[in-house]
Amino acid sequence: MVSSTRNxxxxxxxxxxxxxxxxxxxxxxxxxxxxxxxxxxxLGPSGSGKTTCLMMLxxxxxxTHGEIRLDGRPINSVPPHKxxxxxxxxxxxxxxxxxxxxxxxxPLEVRGIGKADRxxxxxxxxxxxxxxxxxxxxxxxxxxxxxxxxxxxRALVFDPKLVLMDEPLGALDKQLREHMQFEIKHLHETLGxxxxxVTHDQGEALTMSDRIAVFNDGRIQQLAPPSDLYxxxxxxxxAGFIGENNKLPGTVEEIAEGRALVRLAxxxxxxxxxxxxxxxxxxxxxxxxxxxxxxxPEMLPPNAHLIDAEVMEFIYMGDIFRTxxxxxxxxxxxxxxxxxxxxxxxxxxxxxxIGWAPQDARALDPL
Amino acid sequence: xxDATADLAAExxxxxxxxxxxxxxxxxxxxxxxxxxxxxxLVLPLLLFILVTFIVPIGQMLHRSIHNDGFSANMPLLSxxxxxxxxxxxxxxxxxxxxxxxxxxxxxxxxxxxxxxRVNYEMPGTRSLFTSTGRKARGFEPPYREAILQAxxxxxxxxxxxxxxxxxQAYSPNFFLAAVDLARDNEGNIVxxxxxxxxxxxxxxxxxxxxxxxxVLCLLLGFPVAHxxxxxxxxxxxxxxxxxxLPFWTSLLVRTTSWIVLLQGQGVVNNTLVATGxxxxxxxxxxxxxxxxxxxxxxxxxxPFMILxxxxxxxxxPPTYVRAARSLGASSxxxxxRVYLPQTLPGIGAGALLVFILGVGxxxxxxxxxxxxxxxxSNLIAFHMQDSLNWSLAAALAAVLLGxxxxxxxxxxxxVGIDNLKLG
Lengths: 367, 424
Hints:
The structure holds 2 protein chains of 2 kinds. Chain A is built from 8 helices and 19 strands. Chain A is an alpha+beta fold. Chain B is 68% helix and 1% strand. Chain B has a two-stranded antiparallel sheet. In chain B, a hairpin with a 5-residue loop joins strand 1 and strand 2.
């Protein structure tokens, strides 16, 4: 759905840099093309530059260097109110002195749209977020979730082609947040708008996005669809930031045909897929997802390397079991197994042997 | 546990009771009575203070503005004659007899001056008539009419008798009439005061105009400063805040006199303008001892009262509101006018009300730098308190001022709503 139009570049960042103090760069050489209709999430820890990028796109910050284009037009010097970009803020920013209806009417009034047209658009936008009965309420009379919906409706009511969302669900409780994730996703699909979404919540990013740009230290660490990001992280930061993973430091012993043999500090050999390593003797960090570690040898490929492990702790979590192991001197190795019929519950102190398919272990850059 | 719930609900009157059967409301009131008593004791000193220093004096002032017994208490017989006869009755021998007897008694009690002063308030130039006749009162013999007219023929003046009839009543609206440039003629009809005494309405008007102008100036000057204070980083805004508050820590007198130094004919501003050739030495601007001086100095003094409420309202307004408005397509001016400004209204209201009410009652600055054209109503109130000693008129003027301010306050409440006021 997305790949065919990806190169259009509806929104393009080209060599964008941003500095606030003239001494350090908050955004370092950002290159990003977002295609029309795409849902792109900027994900990263606070201070990683993701919000700055969004603010530059919205026009509230100016890029120190580089060009930002919207629909082929450079917008560096276009003031925010002429960009025609809808925006949803973290704290909703609904105008407290106006009713819900007036809040929605505001973007239409400043565009000089007639009264009849306005009313029709407002009704349509409110119905879209199932808030049709609330036009005469004040924002303060609404719950957090309702305010969020109104903020969404206000950002969409003037039919923008691009909508920016700055951690819009951050202030909601977990259940409501998950519900709103789906609603926003559905709105995006129905309306065919382009969405740039900023969050630090990886679950949210994985659930909603077509593509995710993982930010750290002012750079995009990886730009990929959610499944790629989770299963094929390009570096140690992405592997550590998205989901849980086990890290085993070691040295490349052998590398050939897309497979690497890594010798851990304690002497064991393990299988891995080389990602950021290319030659023998290189230091590396092998990353394995807890749910891809296998402790039943019959489930593993015949030539897989197995290593010794000792069970430290077993936690029953309902749908899954979480077992902490001592592997290669580290006590932080975690495996997850589904609570299926006949699944084994490991006992603390038990000695087992574990292994994995080589493609699930990724040899990344050492930290 | 289920039993206890049943007990609570099963009370026949339908009211809830506690476990030992007392009505829940009584028990609650008793439990809270102690705390309420303690709270009341805490505010009691302030309550007494307000009562003694605010309610009582204002009540006295209002009373004095309609009550003056300077004549009626010292001229009892003549007051009785006025009470007996119709307004406009020509004074007969009985009236002159009462006048003579009263003057004799007053001369003995040395209160003729008080009586003369009271009549003099309404009819200037009559005090000496009373004191001079009072000195001769001991020798009056019947027929009193001839005797008194011989002492001074001015006693035949019907206007004088009309005035005496008015002041013979201790309670009279005359002071309030005088405060709004009205008077009563001999027949007791309300008419305009003579032109040379019509000053108060003009002064009220000037006072309210100048206070309004100062309020507008304070708002125009204070709004950007308050906005800057609210948006600057904390360090810089603290420094600016000190600058705003600095005038509060300086004596009012020092600040006012420093304006004299700056603005007078040979002052800093004029000298600078002359030195730079913008004006010639002969055309030095008159900026002090007139309305201009009053306006400049009072705007400066009242500015913090505008800035502080504005600041306290602006500080918690997050910048995302204006950003949201901008992202929705509003130009920066529209965003300011439709989104930012309405949210600062409580602060504008509070600051404007504060500055206006303080400005309307301001005394010391106009007295020092106002000259003749910069005098406000409070200066005249002070004049009647200290120089003319017509306390009743001063009280009436003050009461009119109080009434006008209360009307404004009421209007503000109707238009903006007093609950929209935020003082800090």
